[in-house]
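HUMAN: Forgive my ignorance: could you write out one protein's sequence and backbone structure tokens?

ASSISTANT:
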Amino acid sequence: MQTGLYIDGRWDSGVSQLENRNPSDVSDLIGLYAQAGADQLDAALHAAKRAQVAWWAAGIQKRHDVLMAIGTELMARAAEIGRIIAREEGKPLAEGKGEVYRAGQFFTYFAGECLRNQGDLAESVRPGVEIDVRREPVGVVAIISPWNFPVATPAWKIAPALAFGNSVVWKPANLTPASAVALTEIIAKQDIPAGLFNLVAGPGRDVGQRLVESRDVAAISFTGSVPVGRGIAASAIQNMTKVQMEMGSKNPMVIMDDADLDLAVANACGAAFGGTGQKCTAASRLIVHASIHDAFVDKLVTAAEALKVGHALEDGTQLGPVVSGDQLKQNLDYIGIGKSEGAELLTGGERLERGTEGYYMAPAIFSGTTNDMRINREEMFAPITCVMKADSYDEALAIANDSAFGLTAGIMTRSLARASHFRANMHAGCVMVNLPTAGTDYHVPFGGRGASSYGPREQGTYAAEFYTSVKTAYVAAGEPT
């Protein structure tokens, strides 16, 4: 496997190297991975600008065939690359395989979109004038992706970027370089112009900042934290660069008194602790009707304590380690914050010892929390969830909407009226009824409101709003001869 950068159709060793270790077993050195310097980033941008012209000219069938080949290989190699994800990010192997397969589906879906990128004809208000409306590529797209879905998140950005005729400069998260290299190897083997796709890893303060400030970049798609997103937006506006950002969340799940209690517990447990809670769609606020509160909490504690926390590559593991020592420290700090705010820690929240030295943590449940506590206001990105009590549906909805974020939200109820009202009045980009808050489909739009998202939606046909520019052409028909 390559451990370098990929720039202008060639692998490069970089100006420095970064250690990549397994969070399930810190003695396992996965490899040393290259970091780019300013000159290498500039070379990637120059190459991307040149290659984009040739890629757009290659036509829709060519783009379809390339994306279909990438997606097909990703799905075929889901087990192999899923193992890489599990080893370097700590995601249980089954989840890693599923992520890679889903990444392949993004590419095959957008392969189809290459052939569906059709324009419109319109009548003019002026006689003898024809109007043609079509979408064209924006140019060079900078993609900055996170570590928690190191293949799927870049896939749902790279695939539409290429489908609509753009070139790509991708800066992945430094915590998951092996996954980035694996995806790049598949893209690099395709018959594409040199420089069309570039992998440029490096620290955000240097490579990332230079990338978002570049005048050669037409659009920036970013997934990460709110503070970083705000910094990117401030830099991008200097060049009027188009931005699309998916950032923080504090997703609520409302459990009403008429809910199927066992289903509610299963969905809440899966949404709160799946992926070790390291998902932007995780349910970190559970708002429970007072009449079923105690019964729900008892069952949730039992379900959480039954989860198997272990090495990501071991059979039966349901929760792997958190991604790094820094992340574990932050998680444990939030446990302390919750206690200091007066919340009751019902279970979990401590570091666990396993057969290998890793960043293991018991899933934690706080009860007796209020919505003004930091643990209910700030994104923790941890296997920690907080239970709040509500005396009515109206109170539960008000609590759910009382947040700076608005990515996903869920309700557990047998009432069609409540479900319909919640869908209409919940201030979130994605609303789930009798489902976990985590889990979205690739062919429909994804994104949130408030501090969760900024710019056009990702995925599905809505992706065209970000990755293309609309051109309206007026043509004088002239007199027939």
Remarks:
- The first strand starts at residue 5 and ends at 7.
- The chain is about 40% helix and 25% strand.
